[in-house]
Amino acid sequence: METAPEDLLRAHGLHHEYEGSPALLDVCVGVREGEILCVTGPRGCGKSTLLGCLSGRLVPARGEVWFDGVPLHTLPVPARERLRRDRFGWIGSEPHLLPELTVWENAALPLLLSGAGRRRARRTACEWLERLDVGYCARSRPGALLQAQRQRVAIARALAHSPAVVFADEPTAPLHQADRAQVLRTLTTAARSHGITVVLASHDARVAGVADRAVTLVDGRRVGPDAPPPTDAPVRPGPEGRAACSLSA
Description:
Layout: E1 7-18, E2 21-32, E3 36-40, H1 47-54, E4 62-67, E5 70-71, H2 77-87, E6 88-91, H3 103-113, H4 118-131, H5 147-159, E7 165-169, H6 177-194, E8 197-201, H7 205-208, E9 213-218, E10 221-223
Parallel strand pairs: 3-8, 3-9, 6-7, 7-8
Antiparallel strand pairs: 1-2, 1-4, 4-5, 9-10
Helix pairs in contact: 3-4, 3-5, 4-5, 5-6
């Protein structure tokens, strides 16, 4: 299977489970370059697992994940780690900053790991910290920051190296209501201005509202009128004999 030209990221027939309990059941989804896609659904429906598979943090039990023509599901671990470091950004619901580094060093970490000079890495990281209203914390250690400030630093870290895709799993969960709209605006504005594809996971309808498109999971399955049929189900041919299923729908 190869990706369609319009899809930067594509998953086909994903199955995954935790300790015998299914987390994903035959999930198909495509994400176009520059698109902001939100994966919605109730807690425990498989949103985080889907982002984990799409980002290479998890290898699905069955199914395929393709990124820019590369089969992510078959890459050896070192190649997958390099891809995640260089081409992807990750924002979780917890910031997970390194306590021994300063704020700017945390934000610059992907740049430093990829070989960027320290001066350029610091300048770029501080620019993102300023955009997220935590530039004044650049010399501080994470332990001196509030939880909401640490989350902003984590968002700066995910954007600083201009990744092709940012995966954001409940990115506004630690923020107060007043901060959520601003952080989402910053994330989506930065993505659009830099051509970054964003895959969000959230059960909050207001988060889904900033996306170009949303897909819904329930009990590990994709549901809704735009959900493609199961990969093992009979597919009704189109008028020229082609399958009517579109994974990007």
